[in-house]
Predict the structure of DUF3105 domain-containing protein.
Amino acid sequence: MASNKTANASRKARIEEMRRAEQARERRNRFLVIGISTAVVAGLVGFGSYVFLKESEKKEQKVAQAKAPVTDEKSWDAKKLGRNHVNKDVSYPMTPPVGGDHSQVWMNCEGDVYKKEIPKVNAVHSLEHGAVWVTYNDKASDADVKKLAEKVGKTPYSLMSPLKDQSGALMLSAWGKQVTVDSAADPRVDQFFTKYVQGPQTPEPGAACTGGLAQ
């Protein structure tokens, strides 16, 4: 009889010990899950904060670029540039033209890159809609032309074409604004795009850049 009681007590002790061990394992697992979850959440929060800060920095840089003057930029009084629609060639006082009377049909400027010269009277209409027009002559390097073409191709409200009779190798024009740059890597390229693609100088912001003339 005493032997049975001893065996029962020993069995209960082992069961109790196993129960305590199982409870300990469950606690460790809970702590492990909580720790991993906390680390994951912290990582996501940290990544989100990093992305947010990066995006904020980019926006601040764009705002700064839009406010800063473009070095060696030429400007014309936008209000004094003619805006009549004409059915003839126009003799512009600057090359490339940055405004003035123009054709009633615009050049497509949804990132269009033209391999041949385009009619100035149509390109000026594109500028009126807020486009930036990139032009180059025979002095421009193939590498610069290619890089600028890639940028234009990714930028709505921009167009690009060769123009032999311009003074600079690489020139950027908007309505009433123009700058000659040294290369495609010149920081004024990005600055000019940021400042004048659909910029405050645009006489007809939001007007179409498709449905016009194309080569």
